[in-house]
Amino acid sequence: MAFDLAFVWAFLIAFAVLAYVVMDGFDLGIGILFPFFRDKGERDIMMNTVAPVWDGNETWLVLGGGGLLAVFPLAYATVLPALYVPLIAMLLGLIFRGVAFEYRWRTKRWLPVWDWGFAVGSMVAAFSQGIALGALIEGIPIVDRAYAGGWWTWLTPFSVATGISLVIGYALLGATWLVMKTTGDLAARARDIAQPATYLTLVAMGVFSLWTPLIGPHYLGRWLSFPAVIFSLIVPLLVLVCVGAIVSGLNQHKDAQPFLAALGLFVLGFAGIGISFYPYIVPPTLTIAEAAAPHASLAFLLVGAVVLIPIILAYTGYAYWVFRGKVRPGEGYH
Questions:
Q1: Number of domain units in the chain
Q2: pTM of the predicted model as reported, rounded to 2 decimal places
């Protein structure tokens, strides 16, 4: 029963992380694309497309991190010291981006500074998230239930490549979001950016997929075992279907299709990571069952999660529904 609750919590935390990636990913992508749009009016519209939802999107990051501390304390205690530098950089990027988001509307002289703050903060946050993911995939050395690596163990060619790949992927989400939410020249330029971003994301996913099994035999064996081998045979086809949907949607000037298909790429990639990790929560040594809190704690916290998660989903869905549709010049949350 304890393992069952641990598995349920692993799924809930994975869901929270995925929700954060797909929701906060596109507004981080807006910041990453900021340097490609020099006109103040265009930048105002870009920020207004995410102004009503960007801070709510980060709720899922808090839920994922807080849930990890509460229900998998051993995993939290080993992952955090291993990834102090990229996680601190991520938090600083998110903080600076949030401050820039508010301040750029209230100044003229310092507007260029806050515009660059928004862009750099978004890039640093996205890159740091990719670095942390890459380091976690490569494996965190654990001895006697404690982190046994060094201060810079996380910095490897694979983690850097993963960081760059995530920046590209978030840029794709941001571009397709702008295609869906804006009109005129801004939407046309976003469409032009989304085309190469789609192909770069496809290349990054291909490199990532081929590189990961070479990291360790546990990944290669996992993907060649049944039933994961079925997914490993189907996922390339599904990825190509999503890429085709993005490209065709862009060429046919469809609004929502490219963004939804781009989300599909992230869901597929996240599912692949989940299959690679299972049954580990900190590969290749710490399993979900080993890292879980006592059964009573898991059960008590699950009661709160059953109440809170539907509430979060409800108000998030309501916010997106209220602020649906295109954002035009002169309109916006600010």
A1: 1
A2: 0.91
